[in-house]
């Protein structure tokens, strides 16, 4: 480490590129992680790009550029369109930042050119650390300081082996000599020592001898054969889990992978635990990882016996192999899983899948066909086909064990006709399938938990059977602009927590028994034509978020100004068209209420709004009332009040003590703000009264409440560390100066 520290000299202001070079499994990544965790706090920003070689092959360089910028700049959702634009963006955004960047497992010069370029890409004092198996790549990029990772010496290797095989205790029997043999065989390679140590842990002397005899039988296979010993010790299902992770799930979220594995009947809890115990995988930040050598071993196992015939492999993970199999009709019943990101639109013959009867995982995109798809394996557990090019699923497709169906952005018109028994199906995503007109009958899908139909712009109706889905948690119908009806029988949806109908422009009614959906926590009916909320809504004691944003409806020709009265309130006028509604009483868990842009008039807001004692945020922007109910000051948990563009609003009552933000921008009629001196106990408060002209019209009046308020705040709170932000029309600032 002294030599490495000499290369780094983190306190100096020059920009340095440092290489870490060595064979696979020697500990380059481990050393890089130690350096990163030790040094990152000494820099303005940092980024660790893992598996550069693998990511650049499977996904290209652009995702790596996006990750680098996102981690250093702390900005999410950065989008880079191509490598050259990414180069310019990195050079422009990072040239003044003192950063620590680590590129792990680089094997091509263009990777360095696209990610870390030259010294002038980074600010003074930056350190760029690069690990690679190929020292020539480092030299070609001008990296002159390269630390070559050496293998462990005999003593270090023996200590590591004892740690893995017996928790650091030195064996006292014949295992002493066997331990020496293992350490010599491993040749100082840490990964091989760890794997063998874990494999031999807890075994008898006879089992040790038997295992080491295997090593003697294949001395020339070296590391890969050493790793294969642990694999051979797994049972069948654990071998399948290992190969799935090696081919598809390295670096993926552990929880999501577990669900996929469990859908295949692999019992992932015990399986992943076994792999962890044998040091075949690791879990870091809830993601599954394995060493490159272990992954390559997995690939070789899949390819063995048919190295040049991918159609006979159990798994296909590279685009070139998938293309070969699908374009040449080379698929066989040996193929169990295909997961690949197809980089561009590619034509295939629909019959390509007809010979893959054992396919259990299929995740593809960008494939189209001029024919009809007549067959998909009934053994499928997970089907994800973005931009699915066919009108429906095959008639013969009856995947009774299907766990997840994702056909987003598809051309599908209908899924199936009649009833299909899919008792294992829990997730269905047909979002943005713009040709879908009707949903299927869900009678045969009793365990569905999440149904996403967002953006199905031609969808006219949802089958009545959706109301019988007792385990459904999420139903998303956002932006289904032609949806005209919603199932009336929702009383059996006892598990539903999220219902989104936002943007369903033609939807006019909600089910009368909606209140019986007792678990509902989020309800969004914004942007619909709904004018009446069913009285049963007050039974939603678990409702936390309720949005009616933009719910102007289509008011009647007479009494059109009383829209919200017909939406929520029992109007005192006997001629009113409004719905009889028991006001807000009962919505005891409601935390966020959005009534913005609902054309609310004076008196439309219920006088019992103060009964919403859990309310923390309310948005009343864009409405036409003159005042707010005085009971609003009873909302003791209210922190955010939005009133932007309420141009008829003339006064504000006393507000609750926990308010931290009041937004009243463009409330051009606002004249009075009552009792604001007792506004908030919060140490941080922001008020926005921009363009509230009438608050500053009478600049010399002794009763100018805005000026009085500002003076009181300055007198009272300047003595303590309160952060007070006041945004008013500029003339008010002139008064106070």
UniProtKB/TrEMBL annotation:
- Protein name as catalogued: Uncharacterized protein
Matching PROSITE patterns: LRR (PS51450)
Molecular function (GO) terms for this protein are: ADP binding
Share an example GO biological-process annotation for this protein: defense response
Q: What Pfam family does this protein match (any one)?
A: LRR_1
Which InterPro entries has this protein been placed in?
A: Apaf_helical, Disease_R_plants, Leu-rich_rpt, Leu-rich_rpt_typical-subtyp, LRR_dom_sf, NB-ARC, P-loop_NTPase, WHD_ROQ1-like
Q: Where is the Disease resistance protein Roq1-like winged-helix domain?
A: 236-304
Q: Which domain of life is it from?
A: Eukaryota
In this chain the NB-ARC domain maps to 12-168
List the keywords (alphabetical).
Leucine-rich repeat, Repeat
């Amino acid at each position: 480490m002294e030599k490495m520290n000499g290369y780094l000299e983190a306190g100096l202001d020059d920009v340095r590129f440092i290489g870490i070079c060595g064979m696979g499994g020697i500990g380059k990544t481990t050393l890089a992680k130690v350096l990163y965790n030790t040094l990152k706090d000494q820099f303005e920003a940092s980024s660790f790009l893992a598996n550069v070689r693998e990511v650049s092959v499977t996904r290209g360089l652009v995702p790596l550029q996006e990750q680098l910028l996102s981690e250093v700049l702390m900005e999410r959702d950065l989008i880079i369109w191509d490598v050259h634009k990414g180069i310019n963006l990195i050079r422009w955004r990072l040239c003044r930042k003192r950063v620590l960047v680590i590129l792990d497992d680089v094997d091509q010069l263009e990777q360095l050119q696209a990610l870390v370029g030259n010294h002038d890409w980074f600010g003074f004092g930056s350190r760029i650390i690069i690990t690679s198996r190929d020292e020539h790549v480092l030299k070609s990029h001008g990296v002159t300081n390269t630390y070559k990772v050496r293998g462990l010496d005999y003593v270090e290797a023996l200590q590591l082996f004892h740690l893995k095989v017996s928790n650091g205790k030195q064996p006292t029997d014949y295992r002493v000599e066997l331990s020496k043999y293992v350490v010599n065989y491993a040749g100082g390679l840490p990964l091989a020592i760890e794997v063998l140590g874990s494999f031999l842990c807890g075994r008898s002397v006879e089992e040790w001898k038997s295992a080491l005899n295997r090593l003697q039988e294949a001395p020339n296979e070296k590391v890969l054969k050493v790793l294969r010993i642990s694999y051979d010790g797994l049972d069948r299902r654990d071998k399948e889990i290992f190969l799935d992770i090696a081919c598809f799930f390295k670096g993926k979220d552990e929880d999501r992978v577990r669900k996929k594995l469990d859908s295949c009947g692999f019992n992932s809890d015990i399986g992943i635990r076994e792999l962890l115990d044998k040091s075949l995988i690791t879990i870091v930040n809830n993601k599954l990882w394995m060493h490159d050598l272990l992954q390559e071993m997995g690939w070789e196992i899949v390819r063995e016996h048919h190295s040049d015939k991918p159609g006979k492999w159990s798994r296909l993970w590279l685009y070139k192999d998938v293309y070969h199999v699908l374009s040449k009709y080379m698929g066989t019943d040996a193929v169990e899983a295909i997961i690949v990101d197809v980089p561009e639109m590619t034509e295939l013959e629909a019959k390509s899948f007809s010979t893959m009867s054992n396919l259990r995982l299929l995740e593809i995109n960008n494939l189209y066909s001029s024919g009809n798809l007549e067959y998909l394996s009934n053994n499928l557990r997970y089907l994800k086909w973005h931009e699915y090019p066919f009108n429906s699923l095959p008639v013969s497709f009856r995947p009774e064990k299907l766990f997840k169906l994702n056909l987003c952005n598809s051309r599908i018109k209908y899924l199936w006709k009649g009833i299909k028994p899919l008792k294992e199906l829990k997730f269905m995503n047909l979002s943005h399938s713009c040709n879908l007109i009707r949903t299927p009958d869900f009678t045969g899908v009793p365990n569905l938990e999440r149904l996403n139909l967002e953006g199905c712009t031609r969808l006219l109706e949802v089958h009545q059977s959706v109301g019988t889905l007792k385990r459904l948690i999420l139903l998303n119908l956002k932006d289904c602009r032609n949806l005209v009806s919603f199932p009336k029988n929702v009383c059996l949806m006892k598990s539903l927590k999220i219902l989104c109908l936002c943007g369903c422009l033609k939807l006019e009614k909600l089910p009368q028994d909606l209140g019986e959906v007792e678990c509902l926590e989020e309800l969004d009916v914004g942007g619909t034509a709904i004018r009446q909320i069913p009285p049963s809504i007050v039974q939603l004691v678990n409702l936390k978020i309720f949005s009616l944003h933009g719910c102007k409806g289509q008011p009647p020709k007479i009494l059109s100004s009383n829209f919200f009265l017909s939406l929520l309130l029992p109007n005192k006028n006997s001629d009113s068209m409004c719905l009889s509604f028991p006001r807000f009483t009962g919505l005891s868990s409601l935390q966020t209420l959005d009534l913005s842009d609902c054309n609310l008039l004076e008196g439309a807001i219920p006088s019992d709004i103060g009964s919403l004692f859990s309310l923390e945020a309310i948005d009343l922007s864009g409405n036409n009332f003159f005042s707010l109910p005085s009971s609003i000051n009873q909302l003791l948990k209210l922190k955010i009040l939005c009133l932007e563009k309420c141009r008829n609003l003339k006064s504000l009552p006393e507000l609750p003590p926990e308010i931290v933000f009041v937004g009243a921008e463009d409330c051009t009629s606002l004249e009075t703000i009552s009792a604001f001196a007792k506004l908030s106990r919060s140490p941080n408060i922001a008020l926005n009264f921009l363009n509230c002209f009438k608050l500053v019209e009478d600049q010399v009046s002794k009763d100018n409440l805005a000026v009085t308020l500002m003076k009181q705040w300055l007198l009272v709170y300047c003595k303590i560390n309160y952060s007070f932000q006041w945004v008013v029309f500029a003339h008010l600032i002139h008064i106070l100066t």
